[in-house]
Design goal:
about 950 residues, globular, RNA-binding, 10-stranded mixed sheet, 29 strands, 5-stranded parallel sheet, single chain
Length: about 950
RNA sequence: GCAGGGAUGGCGGAGCUUGGUCAAACGUGCAAGGCUUAGGACCUUGUGCCUUAGGGCUGCGGGAGUUCAAAUCUCCCUCCCUGCACCA
């Protein structure tokens, strides 16, 4: 049995001692392969192997194809997650400690993890060990991390340049906010890890008829302004008169306090909702004077506590008014005006007759409800109605009459904002309130003077779009995806108050946001080790240095003078980046597509010269475990280091990378591993057995194996060039094992042939199972390293379709005979009898010719009249051809085997066939056969006669 | 809500871009036999239904259509997954 850990460590030591993965510029074409650098807040598990293994495979493949390949690695320490770990350790979070122990982190190390930097270093070390254990061909001399002062200099340069190019902007920005901790609140800061969802709402100003104070009505549906009949307030709630940015408003006291995080608000006086009921308010669009009424559903915590009532379109509003009518509340006659019409044929799915004049009532009827229905039923009706109207609603009022509802909503809102009839606020749109981990309710705050990277810049988008057009993507459909993302991406906040990372140059209290700082770090690999080797200090990496690297200046003397770095070192850095960065390949999992990878493209087009722009992106799917997602909540996580010891790095890499197509999730399962173990065992034993075998003259089956091999190399190389890894390895691995087994079963025993075959297979296997392949390579008597070998070449002369086809004919014939024997043994007449012999009758040669003519011309008459068929009996020819008539269009040419060759093939394999069939075999030619079934012989499909005793 | 992707044999998953050679690659599971007595085994055969000779029928989420021909093209429906910004 193969001991993977032992074997793998043995070859890792050899590779390391010989520095086989250290790459420096030479005269070969260059390729820089990078995979998204890992974030160091937890060690990797076996699922993380996929991206790095895919990159490693491509690196090895391209190296074998003659490229000088560099595959470096670094560690991502920027951001808040590491701080979060430290915080949770400080508070002795049991779940976290349990998780860490699962990764074999000892108590002493855990106790030190109150220090974020310790955490970062610890996990970076563990991760490096994991990647070394996996056997990746990484040049570790170039390792760095993203909070290293040296690296920060590159990030700073990036931001100086972005500002220079006016791609940074400042503005306000809404965030979830905890008023207790005075902090922005993201998903991981909330109870239950709820993502705060922020919606923009419109506050429409309804002027009090008798004063200059406005009722501030918050709404998501400003387009219904044409159907407003009244204002609702909660008579028992506390309201205020407040000055919001220069104008006075009625709104709930609660709302005033919440909105003070978004607007400048000063409260002038307080009142009870009841006092508002006597007032009347002016609709800013229609000018109607509207009554203010008590609404049972109005909550002073929601929105502004003041609601505009649209009874035709809002079930709550409708219900509230109907209830007031029942109570005989004193109010004027109200006109329930419909302002949106839904295209017919959609709403009442049950076919019931519902009220279409008052949609709010209609939707209540749909739910068999009335105005006294409980709130949740009204809520359901509201949602259904809102959905229907957004989908199929057409405006029938106002200047946007005829427009689709969502469009009208947008335009009416913009109009009112522009005319000062409304303003916007932000609110959380989550179903239920969100709470910070500290217990405080989360609200929305707008941050002033927030810095953004302006990915919305049209000229920038255009450049990036062009880049996407020029790049290669695997899988190919990514090109379209990125095209769309380039259009979609807009302002992106780029600084934050907390976290590890590089200080934001234009606001040193803040840190550069952690996705923004890792958009061009791949350039750093090309020259960092030169800086390390020359003891360059971070403060020497002034902008001039990077200006020189990235072609903004070519005055090396001045750069050297400015920075104090020797001209020689600078020149070396420049040569290195010029060599490596002109041909790059980037790998990641799909989660980085809409963020990191998109930003990566943008920053490159903004700052780097044409020849340094990205060339290729490869994205691979995730890894499941036994069919379900790997996650700590499922308890199915296997840490990488444990996994490599238990399963072997090679088999793990193999099933993760080749087990599924690139863009789909792959599955980790013990069954799949077992399949690899047994096949590897077979290959291993087969190589072992070669020593005891002879090499004689080549037989039919030897030519067959050579043909299969060379065709395989050709096909598989094409598949790899397309990153079709699953299909490629079905050919290289699974099929090769079956072919070897077939070869042996057919009596193949030529050591030389098998050696040739295995040697090529091992070469092709070495890019995914390098350790195992290295082992086999040496067992095959090689003294070189397989990981430094070239990709096998195709010997076209050895590809012999006829040889392969004839093998297929033999295989199919055996199958047909067996099936025929089984079926005919059920005939009463054959009960209890044995098969005496099986006649195999090979078709006359003209049949293949006729068949191929038919396949080409698709016309029986044309074959009949073809001069090549001149000597054939017309009746036999027409009988033969007519059997293909019904599928004539589906016929395609076959590799005709001469009847001589076929007869020889059958003669060669007579013994084998007799063994497989379990009875004697007699070969006949159609023309010479006396069998009644002889005429049934088809090209490449002999007729069979089973002769019973 | 917006955007994107998906629905195929017991299971995972090909094939659908370029309709036919597809009862459906490859893997895995299951069953019988061999081997052998136990090693994650290995080998053979079978694994939609029917079938007295290599054949037929039904089938690729549901429904309709285009076509000589559809898992593959068009339309509608149902269900599922992923992302949506300060979060790496």
């Amino acid at each position: 049995m193969i001991n993977y850990p032992e074997m793998e460590k043995k070859w890792q030591k050899v590779w390391e001692d010989l520095k086989v993965y250290e790459a420096d510029p030479d005269n070969r074409p260059a390729l820089l392969v990078t995979a998204a650098l890992p974030y160091v807040n937890m060690p990797q598990h076996i699922g993380h192997l996929r991206t790095y293994s895919t990159a490693d495979l491509l690196a090895r493949y391209m190296r074998a194809k003659g490229f000088n390949v560099l595959y470096p690695m670094a560690f991502h320490k920027t951001g808040t997650p590491i701080l979060a770990i430290a915080k949770r350790i400080t508070s002795r979070d049991e779940d976290l400690i349990k998780e860490l122990k699962m990764y074999d982190v000892d108590d002493e190390s855990i106790s030190k993890m109150v220090d974020p930097l310790y955490i970062a270093d610890y996990f970076a070390t563990v991760m490096e060990r994991g990647m070394r254990r996996a056997g990746y061909g990484i040049d570790w001399r170039r390792k760095f991390d993203t909070i290293q002062p040296m690296f920060s200099k590159l990030v700073e340069w990036q931001f100086f340049k972005l500002k220079e190019k006016r791609l940074l902007s400042q503005g306000t920005h809404p965030v979830g906010w905890c008023t207790n901790e005075n902090n922005a609140v993201g998903q991981h800061d909330t109870k239950g890890d709820v993502q705060p969802e922020i919606d923009e709402e419109t506050v429409i100003k309804f002027k009090d008829v008798d004063s200059d104070i406005y009722f501030a009505c918050a709404t998501l549906r400003p387009e219904t302004i044409y159907g407003v009949t009244n204002i609702f307030v909660d008579p028992k709630a506390r309201y205020v008169i407040a000055n919001i940015e220069g104008e006075r408003y009625y709104l709930s006291k609660n709302a005033a306090s919440t909105l003070s995080y978004q607007k400048k608000i000063s409260v002038e006086s307080e009142l009870i909702g009841d006092e508002l009921l006597k007032k009347r308010a002016l609709n800013p669009i229609t000018g109607d004077a509207l009554p203010v009424l008590p609404g049972f559903f109005v909550k002073d915590e929601t929105g502004t506590g003041v609601v505009m009532s649209v009874p035709a379109h809002a079930p709550f509003d409708y219900a509230a008014l109907e209830r007031l009518k029942v109570e005989r509340y004193s109010m004027p006659e109200l006109n329930y005006k419909k302002v949106i019409e839904v295209k017919p044929g959609s709403e009442a799915k049950s076919g019931e007759e519902i009220n279409r004049e008052i949609p709010a009532l209609g939707y209540l009827e749909l739910l068999n409800a009335d105005p006294n229905a409980p709130d949740d039923v009204l809520e359901r009706a509201t949602k259904a109605l809102y959905k229907e109207e957004s989908h199929r609603g057409i405006m029938i009022e106002g200047p946007y009459k005829g427009a689709r509802e969502p469009e009208a909503r947008k335009k009416i809102k913009l109009d009112m904002l522009r005319e000062g009839k409304a303003f916007s606020i932000y609110a959380l749109s989550n179903e239920s309130p969100i709470y910070c981990r500290c217990g405080q309710k989360v609200i929305v705050k707008t941050i002033e003077n927030q810095w953004f990277i302006n990915y919305g810049d049209e000229a920038w988008k255009e450049k990036t779009r062009k880049l996407v057009g020029n790049m290669k993507f695997y899988p190919g459909k990514l090109k379209e995806d990125f095209g769309m993302l380039v259009d979609w991406i807009d302002l992106r906040a780029t600084e934050r108050a907390q976290g590890l990372g590089t200080r934001f140059p234009f606001n040193p209290d803040h840190i550069i946001e952690s996705l923004s700082d890792s958009t061009m770090y791949m350039t750093f690999y090309t020259f960092d080790y030169i800086l390390f080797a020359n003891s360059v200090k971070p403060e020497q990496l002034k902008p001039a240095f990077f200006d020189y690297l990235f072609d903004y200046t070519n005055d090396i003397g001045k750069v050297s003078g400015d920075t104090g770095i020797s001209e020689e070192a600078i020149k070396k850095c420049k040569e290195s980046i010029d060599y490596w960065y002109t041909n790059t390949d980037r790998h990641s999992a799909p989660d980085l597509i809409p963020n990191h990878l998109t930003m990566y493209l943008f920053i490159h087009t903004a700052l780097l010269p044409e020849r340094f722009l990205p060339k290729q992106i490869v994205v691979n799917g995730f890894v499941n475990s036994e069919g379900v997602k790997m996650s700590k909540s499922f308890g199915n996580i296997v840490p990488l280091l444990q996994g490599a010891e238990r399963y072997g790095a090679d088999p793990l890499r193999f099933i993760e990378v080749t087990g599924a197509d690139l863009d789909t999730d792959t599955n980790f399962s013990v069954e799949a591993l077992n399949g690899v173990y047994s096949r590897n065992e077979f290959l291993y034993n087969t190589v072992m057995s070669l020593g005891g075998m002879q090499s004689g003259e080549l037989k039919h089956i030897d030519y067959w194996l050579y043909s299969v091999l060379n065709r395989k190399i050709r096909e598989v190389t094409a598949l790899l060039d397309e990153m079709s890894l699953r299909n490629a390895y079905t050919g290289i691995y699974y099929n090769s094992v079956s072919e070897l087994q077939w070869y042996l079963e057919r009596g193949g025993n030529n050591a030389l042939v098998m050696h040739d075959f295995l040697e090529r297979i091992v070469l092709m296997l070495s890019i995914i199972m390098p350790h195992f392949s290295e082992e086999l390579w040496h067992m095959l008597g090689k003294s070189t390293l397989v990981v430094k070998e070239q990709w096998p070449k195709v010997d076209d002369d050895m590809i012999n379709p006829v040889e392969e086809e004839s093998e297929n004919v033999i295989r199919n014939t055996i199958y047909d005979v067996r099936q025929g024997m089984e079926l005919s043994s059920k005939i009463d007449a054959n009960r209890g009898r044995k098969v005496k012999e099986v006649k195999i009758i090979v078709a006359e040669p003209w049949k293949a010719e006729a068949y191929n003519i038919l396949a080409e011309k698709k016309d029986i008459g044309a074959v009949m009249g073809d001069p090549a068929m001149g000597k054939i009996d017309k009746e036999r020819l027409s009988k033969f051809l007519s059997q293909f008539a019904k599928r004539i269009n589906a016929l395609s040419r076959l590799n005709a085997i001469s009847d001589e060759a076929l007869m020889n093939g059958f003669a060669d394999s007579k013994e084998f066939m007799e063994k497989k069939i379990g009875s004697g075999v007699k070969l006949e030619k159609e023309a010479e056969s006396k069998s009644a079934r002889a005429a049934r012989a088809l090209p490449n499909k002999p007729s069979i006669e089973i002769v019973w005793e």
